[in-house]
Amino acid sequence: MAxxxxxxxxxxxxxxxAESGAPGSAKMGPKEDPHxxxxxxxxxxxxxxxxxxxxxxxxxLAPQLSxxxxxxxxFEHVHALVMDxxxxxxxxxxxxxLFRSEDGGRSWQKVALSSKHPxxxxxxVAADPKDPLAIYAATHEAGVFRTTDGGKTWREANxxxxxxxxxxxxxxxxxxxxxxxxxxxKGEGIYRxxxxxxKWVRVDDGPAGETKVLTSxxxxxxxxxxxxxxxxxxxxxxxxxxx
Length: 243
Known about the structure:
Blueprint: E1 15-16, H1 17-20, E2 27-28, E3 42-43, H2 50-61, E4 78-83, E5 90-94, E6 97-101, E7 109-111, E8 122-127, E9 135-139, E10 144-147, E11 155-156, E12 166-171, E13 179-183, E14 189-193, E15 201-204, E16 211-220, E17 226-232, E18 235-240
Antiparallel strand pairs: 1-18, 2-3, 4-5, 5-6, 6-7, 8-9, 9-10, 10-11, 12-13, 13-14, 14-15, 16-17, 17-18
């Protein structure tokens, strides 16, 4: 990710973790044990990425499960899945809109985000880790929506965004009022808000390739910040979030 502001000069932006062996995925060279056996190279998987792996597995299996939405049609493409801070309600972002489940996914209800956009293509969903009533949804054509009452009502949160095609949302696990959004097309780049979506500011060009998922991971950079991970069409990339 190419920065527009200075900071974190010793961290290489836009680093492809899968290919570069970035910090956090330490590689160990071959070793000889006391009995003369040669050990193979291994790669340590950061524990902080385990929740992301679980979500990716669920999304991969989603088409095979019996998801029956009350609107009488399937989800088509599933882009995001999150649970509220209390672990009671699931929110699912799909090509046909936003859905919620209060019974562990056995049944789903369509969520109305806006009368102007009854069935938006929901590209990302993010939950406040401390407030179960605060949920954010990123759409392909209408920007960002937020709710502060558990999904009963939704409002646009697009002030400062350069475009309406938002492909990823990430809530800082340590500072829930801080979020990052990945915008494509018009106004493309990474945007940040520090007031829960009240005002966005463009802070970075963003990763190479189409962003599929954006997540703030609580892995310290050693410089006072944490890492922002982006799953893209070109692989997994990360950058320190202190731009």
